[in-house]
Amino acid sequence: MRDRPVYNRVLLELSGEMMGSDGKAIDMRMLNSLASQLSELKECGLQIAVVIGAGNIWRGAGKQSTMSRNKAHMIGMLATVVNAMALQSTLENYGVPAIVLSAIKFEPVIEAEYIEPFVAKNAINHLQEGKIVIFGGGTGNPYFTTDTASALRALQIGADALLKATKVDGVYTSDPAIDSSAKRFDSLTCEQALKMGLKVMDAAAFSLCKDNNMPIVVFSLNPEGNVKRIVFGERIGTIVTPS
Hints:
The chain has 243 residues and is an alpha/beta fold. Helices cover 34% and strands 19% of the residues. Helix 5 (190-196) runs antiparallel to helix 6 (203-211).
């Protein structure tokens, strides 16, 4: 491992499912673990932005529901803000300044000190001031996934890499939980991932990263400390390169 981070600014994508466990929508053990790791990285001078999904709170309307997909997506976007504010509060308990920037406006329901409307220039300013920036509300539009929101925000803030944390330790030829013969890639290109139909990210996110030279690192949050190992140059998980 190197003496200093190999990146200056990263965007960390977290699935909402990681935020909950044992029937709890939000697991404080996970929040404390994340806050501790992010606090350590910030002390190393890394600029950190985070996008969180909402799978722990909302999994959509379901096939049997009469709810429209549009409304289901809107509820999901609101749920990401709940997760974002929970992480922000935990970071502040660790003495780490953090701000939530939402694609959905909440004034005057929530005070501006807790959450601001998303503006790319303001996000960059907050990062340069040493705050961890947590993006909520997805893209502000239905039908776009957390993957697409992460790729978009990473590009808008000029991140050096998109770090996608999952429950699996990289990208496999097929689902390793189902297929025992699945093999993990050390690296591949966005185009290869698209052609093979790999489901680790959606096509829109892969295309955004491919067209704008944004590398993606897909890895597991476990064991604790993997985020630090990646930003300090250790080869963990799968690197998906633009070309």
